[in-house]
Amino acid sequence: MESSSFLTINDEQIELSQVVKYLQVSGKLNQFISDVLRQYILEQEIATRNDIDVSTALIEQSIIDFRLKNQLTDAEKFQAWLQNNGSDYATFYESVTFSFKLEKLKAVITEPKLPEYFIERKIYLDRVILSRIMVDNRELAEELHTQIEEGSSFEQLAKEYSLADEKTFNGMMGPISRGSLPDILRAPIDAVNPGQLIGPIELEGRFSLFRLEGIIPASLENNQLKQSLQTELFEKWIGEKIQNLTVKLQVN
């Protein structure tokens, strides 16, 4: 492939081969190629499907909304904004269209797989609410466990003894994804009911007592979780597509 000018800096033409060298030296060439392959996959897929059409009215309304939100209703201001962002109206219109089609493509690809994927992941997506008392030796942790079992206030002991930041909240920790818990803690949590103690458990050289306060089951009714799972599935799909490509770098 013949070398070609990629851009001009201070009247000096920078060849595409030089751009590639810059990316290699900076360690960014692989990411650059990955981004190109990703866009190639998406545009090829969008161009060959007939189930992701987007109405012209929706695109135009979206552009109007964008201009209103960003105070670009004046034609000259909008044109200046486009130029400052290295674009023009046709390119901007194409970008908005692409974003809508991309969301439709993501839905088409992921929605049939989403229920099964959710079931596979659910055990890690459920959240637990815990309270914790963290101390620096096992003997003290065991003594506090005994005191709580005998009726002492977990909350008061957390305030007095815990080394963790949440001591100011009576030891209460926020909802935690079950999947983010270390194995040494996840298994005991599965074996108790809300209100019961766990530990002492040694974590990172300190000893903690936990109390399970509650469980928040994951649900696809949670839009944020649903979108997160769709993104995971979509990126896996793209990754599989990229693995099946034959790619050759042809720059002298």
From TrEMBL:
Gene3D superfamilies per record: 3.10.50.40
Residue ranges of every copy of the PpiC domain listed in the record: 125-214
Example of a GO MF term: isomerase activity
UniProt keyword terms in alphabetical order: Isomerase, Rotamase, Signal
Xref: SUPFAM superfamilies: FKBP-like, Triger factor/SurA peptide-binding domain-like
Catalyses which reaction(s): [protein]-peptidylproline (omega=180) = [protein]-peptidylproline (omega=0)
Enzyme class: isomerase
Entry EC number(s): 5.2.1.8
InterPro entries the record matches: PPIase_dom_sf (IPR046357), PPIase_PpiC (IPR000297), PrsA_foldase (IPR050245), Trigger_fact/SurA_dom_sf (IPR027304)
Protein name: peptidylprolyl isomerase
Organism: Okeanomitos corallinicola TIOX110
